[in-house]
Amino acid sequence: MRIVIALGGNALLRRGQPMTADNQRANVRVAAEAMAPLAADHELVISHGNGPQVGLLALQGAAYPAVETYPLDVLGAQTEGMIGYLIEQELGNLLPSDKPFATVLTMVEVDPDDPAFANPEKFIGPVYEQEEADRLAAEKGWVFKQDGAKWRRVVASPLPRRVFEIRPIRWLLEYGAVVICTGGGGIPTMYRPGTHMLEGAEVVVDKDRASSLLARDLDADLFVMATDVDGVYRDWGKPSQQRIDRATSTELSGSEFAAGSMGPKVGAAVEYAERTGHRAAIGTLADVEGLVAGTHGTSVVRG
Amino acid sequence: MRIVIALGGNALLRRGQPMTADNQRANVRVAAEAMAPLAADHELVISHGNGPQVGLLALQGAAYPAVETYPLDVLGAQTEGMIGYLIEQELGNLLPSDKPFATVLTMVEVDPDDPAFANPEKFIGPVYEQEEADRLAAEKGWVFKQDGAKWRRVVASPLPRRVFEIRPIRWLLEYGAVVICTGGGGIPTMYRPGTHMLEGAEVVVDKDRASSLLARDLDADLFVMATDVDGVYRDWGKPSQQRIDRATSTELSGSEFAAGSMGPKVGAAVEYAERTGHRAAIGTLADVEGLVAGTHGTSVVRG
């Protein structure tokens, strides 16, 4: 099978851990150990999140005022390099030495007319007092929204329309390479309106939505989202909560699952299952073999 | 022809320019305009330097003390992402929309027994007063050497032995893709002694040496090093200075050319020409079409 695995942020950094290179490497090693057994029998494509890593680069940049902080496309490209390297090296250490690997930098296209631009609501970066937020808004053109008692920058999170490097990724899979790509939802880009000139976009693309698009464009047989919860739950947080082992895309399209951190994953799974007729699976990284076998986590199928 | 072009640091950032994303993008655009005409008739592989970019990331990291500065392998991976993205996007904007591109993250192997480790002498990062240098040496295990009146960190610059991703790069070239790789001399790695476990190496690999190895392993027909000088000069800096249009590897192997910033380029050209029998060329990026044609810069051939 051709399998796209989207690694959640917790595969790279556990909540509350200092974001050192050593911690990230140790976590990636655990993720690699979980995924390595799959490489013998399957074509593997690995994508990953990058939220905390982009956040750190932005904080480091802000702490060194001599050079203006880099925009989100450039920071995203930096994290694709860093995280891709750690995954490639740690997974490579567990597989036969002749197994080919490639980390392919990936740009995704977003639409300047995406309705998300009219109402940016993806929080990024640290919280600020109102006065500081107003100053940054005036200086950099950033948009802020209230987050509890403080203020925080928001950017749009438009849908990904295209993964530009889909052909190279496909060619490498045909040669048997493990491919790491579309990190952080891909580097966000868009065409300058009225031209064919591509440029960076100051947005955040949802990693699971971009990975779903990747899986569809690659004609993957299975799309796995590995996170820190063992599946999708009905009545999450209530005494009646119950894990869903298997559901149709129609059953999961209701609003119950749209909110919260599981929402984008459910949306990406539904979209993938409906458009391809193949199965999507959501669960923990430790269970990834079971997610592939269909014995663990939540499976989403067309229907 | 299959051509490997190694872009010098000045293609990304001119001396004295603030290292903003905008400046780097504007410089990359000029480089892309110079290289674009070659893509119609040739297979192109583009490598690049990363010295100032790694330096900035290290400074930004040091300015944000909450998280320990990342090691050189991880910083190198970040710069391969950032610079590769800028090159891929700007060159892509100039070529037909169906031209495939891929930026492939590249690790190079160095030998823990390389004699360079016994005498680290590649200066990196800012200068320090002796007291601060002593403190950092004790705290981080860094090695410092005197640089004028101040002290500066030095690391080893061992020779690259292997480009790990050579097969994916070759496959992508066979499909007609422009490939960007081996940025900054590649991400430096080595096997933990006595094991088959690859890990990062706290070293700097010379970009031109790594590009020469890349060109040899890809059976490239031509290896071009684009820099800010229009060729190799005899008697450089003297009234008798004279550009060399064409020389054999033997003629350039003398010590006259080993010193200074041109030294590693001459060494890389000699090595490539001797081992492959193909031509290497050194000159300015603006002349890159002439370097490919053999009408500009300095050509180095076996002999």
Shape designation of chain A: globular
CATH superfamily of the domain at 1-111 and 159-204 in chain A: Acetylglutamate kinase-like
- Low-confidence segments of chain A, ≥5 residues, pLDDT <50? none
How helix-rich are the residues of chain A, as a percent range? 25-40%
Q: Write down the secondary-structure element order of chain A.
A: EHEHHEEEHEEEHEEEHEEEEHHEHE
Distance between the termini of chain A: 22 Å
Rg measurement of chain A, Å: 19 Å
- The oligomeric state of the chains shown is homodimer
What is the strand tally of chain A? Answer: 17
CATH hierarchy: architecture of the domain at 1-111 and 159-204 in chain A: 3-Layer(aba) Sandwich
- For this structure, the CATH topology of the domain at 1-111 and 159-204 in chain A is Carbamate kinase
Question: pLDDT average of chain A, as an integer?
Answer: 94
Main β-sheet description of chain A: 8 strands, mixed
Which structural class matches the secondary elements of chain A?
Answer: alpha/beta
Give the helix tally of chain A: 9
Strand residues, percent of chain A: 25-35%
Question: Greatest contact pair?
Answer: A-B, 55 and 55 residues
CATH class of the domain at 1-111 and 159-204 in chain A: Alpha Beta
Strand order of the largest sheet of chain A: 3-9-2-1-12-16-17-15
